[in-house]
Design goal:
13% strand; single chain; 1202 residues; seven-stranded parallel sheet
């Protein structure tokens, strides 16, 4: 292909003579420029393509870059087929080092690792394996430390401080976190030593002399200076009315003087600033004012806001230097012990990896630094040798490097002499991966512009033309970021050099449909007390509706060939910060409008259905007597046992494990169970002789797992997951491990350590609307972008960790008052937290930039406001362009940043009206008009279903239409009665009483027992212990106690009252009964039963079963008269006991009802349905008839046969 470069791009391609930093804005064609520069040096300077070291951020980017170079070489060869040198470059390009920094480091270590006693055949362990090894190593170190804790007071204090008096789980997490974060430094051990010394404050008298105190003082000074300006403006407003001036003039002046004094004190030190607090806020006067009501409200609001902010600031200065420094001194031993523990852990972890021949990703970088950088920080001789291999080192996405990687690049490039760096610090969004945008920023600020740089001097260039997006998108981005991004908020000023300029041509729409759109959703409506949908769901419905409208109107987009075509769903992307928690809302909303959609990958590997089934199969091959995996396999699509079928199998064999139930069913001739057991036997046969990979493929083949899941929705993705599992097994065995049990244990450790193997992103198969995270969208472009979820609260989770970490400020611990076990922040923690908050907001701002610059033709921002106009009214006083950094620092969401700038635009009248703030727009360069909308919450409701008329059918007359409508309104659901039928029925509900005191749902204990009746649900609670002691058990509790005795008593020891009394004592001693329950049971009543004919028959029966639980499906019509044909309910119950006699089964149910005589007989008749249910269940389950149904009433010692 032919490269038509702009003049700016051509300068980048041609510039030589020193380190070159290229700040390439979004869509500026940086990859294209990098390729052209490389080939320009190949053709113009006579260099070979393999004399370049090209570093990219991902493997995919490296492959794409190599492919681009190959394509360009092929194009040039086609134009010059006789050029032998070009043909040679086409061969050398596959030898060229175009890779990630980790791949380069791995090659360096395989060639030169012997200098560090490193075996060249090391294996790179993945994050999951590294997590398990590191946790094991840390546990070993901690165990050794605990054994000598009495000899190590620092470690003892660390345990108390960091564990907060609980187990050491929090300490473990802290050590792992600190170790992981310190890997961004070229020499982690030296960094730890230096930070330990930072807590040595000998000779420090004022907290402001510490690095943390200086940061907090400067932050406080900036806040106070901001409020000086705000109150000075308010003071000017008071001049409009004498009364207003008299009321507020003196108090504002006093506050301003106090703020200025505080600013001066903050420059002198902590205690000097603290002495100026509290800031005075004298009471305002109450003189009558003749006018200026609006000004008065603004003055009052500014004063109140300042007062609230200063009160919060005063809390920071609650303690003086003496207390704060004493806190730091108190935690110093714990910090020292923490760093020592981290170093010991690092050594143990390194030894474990060395023993296994493993390296992790951070090892690659740090060992490369050891080879290339000497103790004095200068490049080593080896670095000189390797740098001689390369004429230029090109680093793409330089804004995402860290200090370790930068040290490698510097050493290889002869201290930067031939280093070409390209990136955009406004798109640095990987600080959580230890990227340090400060490295790029430092060079950007210190390198001279290329026009001014002397030969050999580092220089910088800027590519600001965007070839991706419409001017409406670019100017919208420019306006917003000129308003909110600055060195004080965002780490860089958004000036002319940082702005985006249009480099592509688009046909201009005549109707303004391509204007940047901002939709502020008013979600404050709805009836009071009515349940409202979640904010995210309402916003998702709005987004779906907006997409449907764009599709319906045929919104025109480029067809890639200079023409236009209507928008398709695949042209649209919905970007959100974190899709995981809201994906279901967007899926639902798009589904409601029949819009196809697809989401990016990122699910939990172990949670995928196909993986769960495969792992369950492995588990039962290893040991089939595991109920959970066994039932998982039976319920899976492979064998498809229904829940009812499993319930039948369990009820037929309630004792033992489920495998025993399957064996019993197979012996009874049940074909499905026999077939499953035969399959399982085949899978298990020879399993011990197979490797894990072989066994997995044997399972895949025998169960057709690949074919089964491949036929499902997203079948290709599911098959890919199964292949990934096989690769995990291959990697496990490749590391020298063996055995199925070991592999399953390895996977369990992976899951237990919190490691989540991320599923690969699905391919573009559906052609639907894409739902994607902002991080995943980086580097991509889309015709239409909807940026949603802007009202989501900023994530301050990092500021709430047990110990805070910053690569420059060090750690921020809490101090623990060991007497009261109360934690409170130290000065170091306050300082680190504030800096982390600055950097978090800067990163969120850069994420906003990345998201907005993905759009090619249409950008829609949506901000859901649950407070409606009140949310806007709170922002309106501070709206402007630019917005003061102090205002932005006080915001709680990205959406507030957007709205603060938007409220100042001329098109924002709908927002200002909603906020009831009729201020004039700001004086700024607004660029093309925005489409700003105040959207009523009704637009966020689900779409109304519309009846469709067959094509060609005439529209009915008005009377016919009314009749048809009335007929439809009279329609009733024919199965409405079946809907009201419960899915489950207990036998105790059938005896005529709404509530049964003997519900048997797994327990006989009355306390906490749930009972169901005809629409009634009640919970019985035990009488409190003091009441039991004073008044004894209730009648219901006494009945429960008697049932427990009959459930657990040894029938062989019931011949006499004394034997029964001894049995009751045994049950109390074994905790089957409480002492109160044991005393409540009368042994004489129990003896009367066993002395009866029924009792004697029961005692001597060899077939006696007690507490027999059952669940069977029965026709609903037998219990509910309105039930339709085929409807069934699940009938459950517990039979007290039954035994077999010559003519059939005898069912016995014990009753403790306090009834006598005729009342007893009437009560017995009420129990007839319950006993009929028991008989029906026993007949179905055992296949034997029930000959007798007997109730035993303990109140009279009498049996009543039903």
């Amino acid at each position: 292909m032919s490269f038509a470069l702009t003049p700016e791009q051509q300068v980048v391609v041609d510039n030589r003579g020193g380190a070159l930093l290229v700040s390439a804005a979004a869509g500026s064609g940086k990859t294209r420029v990098l390729v052209e520069r490389l080939l320009s040096r190949v053709e113009g300077d006579g260099l070979d393509v393999d004399r370049f070291l090209v570093i990219t951020y991902t493997k995919a980017a490296a492959a794409e870059l190599r492919e681009r170079i190959v394509e360009e070489l092929s194009d040039r060869i086609s134009r010059n087929p006789a050029d032998a040198r070009l043909r040679r470059q086409a061969a050398l390009v596959y030898k060229a080092q175009i890779s990630t920094v980790h791949a380069f480091c791995a090659q360096l270590l395989r060639e030169c690792g012997h200098l560090l006693d490193l075996t060249p055949d090391f294996r790179l362990c993945d994050e999951g394996e590294a997590g398990i090894l590191s946790l094991n190593a840390l546990n070993d170190v901690l165990e050794a430390r605990y054994e000598t804790i009495g000899e190590n007071p620092d470690f003892a204090l660390l345990v108390d401080t960091m564990s907060a008096g609980r187990d050491d789980a929090r300490l473990v997490q802290i050590v792992l976190d600190v170790r992981g974060r310190v890997q961004s430094h070229p020499d982690p051990e030296a960094w730890l030593d230096g930070q330990a010394e930072a807590f040595d404050l000998a000779g420090t008298a004022d907290a402001g002399e510490t690095v943390w105190g200086r940061l907090l003082l400067e932050d406080a000074r900036r806040q106070a200076a901001y409020w000086v300006g705000k109150l000075a403006a308010a003071l000017e407003l008071t001049a409009c009315d004498p009364g207003l001036s008299a009321n507020y003039g003196p108090t504002l002046s006093a506050t301003i003087d106090g703020l200025r004094a505080f600013c001066a004190g903050a420059e002198r030190g902590w205690d000097a600033a603290r002495a100026c607090l509290p800031i005075p806020f004298p009471t305002a006067g109450r003189k009558k004012m003749s006018g200026c009501t609006g000004e008065a409200e603004r003055v009052k609001a500014a004063r109140n806001a300042c007062k609230k902010r200063m009160e919060k600031l005063e809390d920071r200065f609650a303690d003086g230097s003496a207390v704060l420094l004493a806190d730091l001194e108190a935690v110093r031993p714990a910090v020292r012990a923490l760093f020592a523990l981290v170093k010991d852990f690092e050594q143990a972890y390194a030894a474990e990896k060395a023993r296994r021949g493993l390296l992790d990703f951070s090892d690659l970088e740090h060992l490369a630094v050891k080879l290339l950088v000497g103790p004095d920080g200068e490049p080593t001789g080896l670095a000189g040798q390797w740098s001689a291999r390369y004429d230029e080192i090109m680093v793409d996405e330089y804004q995402d490097t860290n200090a370790v990687q930068n040290a490698i690049f510097s050493a290889l490039s002869r201290r930067g002499e031939n280093l070409f760096m390209v990136g955009d610090v406004k798109q640095s969004i990987y600080r959580f991966r230890l990227a340090d945008p400060g490295i790029f920023l430092e060079k950007y600020r210190t390198f001279r512009p290329y026009e001014e740089a002397a030969p050999g001097e580092p220089r910088r260039m800027i590519l600001s033309k965007n070839f991706r997006s419409r001017p409406q998108v670019l100017e919208g981005v420019n306006y917003l970021f000129r308003s909110v991004m600055s060195a004080g908020f965002g780490e860089i000023d958004y000036g002319p050099d940082e702005a985006l300029y249009s480099g592509a041509s688009f046909p201009e729409p005549e109707d303004g449909r391509c204007a940047l759109e901002l939709d502020a959703l008013d979600l404050s409506g709805g009836e009071e007390g009515a349940e409202r949908p979640e904010r995210d769901l309402q916003e998702a419905r709005f987004a779906a509706g907006r997409i449907a409208a764009l599709l319906a109107e045929g919104f025109p987009v480029s067809d890639g060939e200079g023409g236009r075509r209507p928008l398709k769903p695949a042209d649209v992307v919905i970007l959100v910060r974190s899709p995981g928690s809201v994906l279901h809302h967007y899926a639902r909303a798009l589904g409601e409008r029949d819009l196809p959609w697809e989401a990016d990958g990122g699910g939990d590997f172990f949670a995928a259905t196909e993986i769960s089934v495969a792992l369950a199969l492995l588990q039962i091959v290893d040991n089939p007597r595991q109920d959970v995996p066994l039932i998982s396999v039976l319920r899976s699509p492979v064998y498809a046992f229904s829940a009812d079928r499993l319930a039948q199998l369990r009820s037929a064999a309630p004792e033992g494990d489920f495998y025993a139930a399957l064996e019993r069913a197979a012996r009874a001739g049940e074909a499905d169970c026999a077939a499953f057991l035969a399959d399982l036997e085949d899978l298990r046969f020879g399993a011990g002789d197979k490797s894990c990979v072989q066994l997995l493929w044997h399972i895949y083949d025998q169960t057709n797992l690949m074919g089964l899941f491949g036929a499902m929705d997203e079948g290709e993705k599911r098959q890919g997951n199964l292949l990934t599992l096989a690769e995990l097994a291959r990697g496990f065995e490749g590391a020298g491990h063996k055995g199925l049990f070991g592999f399953l244990s390895h996977l369990e450790k992976l899951r237990g350590s919190g490691a989540k193997l991320i599923l690969p992103a699905p391919g573009r198969t559906g052609g639907g609307v894409r739902i994607m995270s902002i991080h995943r969208s980086k580097g991509l472009e889309f015709p239409v972008v909807l940026l949603c979820g802007l009202a989501r609260l900023l994530n301050r989770e990092d500021m709430n960790q047990p110990i805070l970490f910053h690569p420059k400020l060090g750690v921020g611990p809490k101090r623990l008052d060991t007497e009261r076990m109360v934690e409170y922040p130290t000065l170091a923690r306050l300082g680190v937290a504030r800096q982390l908050e600055y950097e978090m907001m800067a990163e969120e701002l850069r994420l906003l930039y990345v998201a907005m610059t993905r759009a090619k033709e249409k950008l829609i921002l949506s901000c859901a406001l649950t407070g409606g106009g009140k949310d806007l009214a709170a922002l309106a006083p501070d709206a402007g362009s630019p917005v003061d950094p102090q205002v932005l620092l006080g915001c709680r969401s990205v959406g507030q940043w957007v709205l603060l700038a938007a409220l100042a635009r001329p098109e924002a009248l709908p927002l200002r009206m909603a906020a009831e703030a009729f201020t004039a727009p700001a004086d700024a360069d607004f660029g093309p008009a925005w489409d700003i909308r105040w959207v009523d919450g009704s637009a966020c409701a689900p779409p109304q279903p519309r009846a469709s008329r067959p094509e060609g059918q005439a529209k009915p007359e008005a009377g016919q239409e009314a009749a048809a409508l009335a007929e439809r309104l009279r329609w009733t659901y024919p199965y409405a009665a079946d809907v009201e039928i419960p899915s489950k029925l207990t036998a105790t509900q059938l005896k005529g009483r709404a509530v049964d005191e003997e519900v048997a749902e797994g327990t006989r204990e009355a306390a906490g027992r749930t009972e169901e009746g005809a629409g009634l649900r009640r919970r019985n609670f035990q009488r409190p212990r003091f009441a039991q002691e004073a008044f004894g058990l209730t009648p219901a509790q006494k009945g429960t106690a008697l049932h427990l005795v009959m459930q657990f008593i040894d029938f062989a020891r019931t011949g006499t009252v004394e034997e029964i009394r001894a049995e009751i004592a045994r049950l109390v001693d074994r905790a089957f009964l409480t002492p109160a329950q044991g005393e409540a049971v009368e042994p004489e009543k129990v003896a009367a039963f066993f002395a009866s004919g029924l009792g004697r028959a029961l005692r001597t029966s060899p077939t006696l079963r007690r507490e027999f639980k059952f669940s069977i499906l029965v026709p609903a019509a037998g219990y509910y008269s309105g039930a339709g044909e085929g409807e069934q309910v699940l009938l459950q119950g517990v039979v007290d006991c039954f035994f077999e006699e010559g003519d059939g089964l005898t069912v016995v149910d014990f009753k403790t009802d306090h009834v006598f005589g005729e009342d007893l007989l009437r009560r017995a008749e009420a129990y007839r349905p319950q006993l009929a249910a028991y008989s029906r269940a026993l007949g179905e389950i055992t296949g034997k008839p029930v000959a007798r149904q007997v109730l035993w009433f303990f109140s009279e010692g009498r049996a009543v046969e039903i």
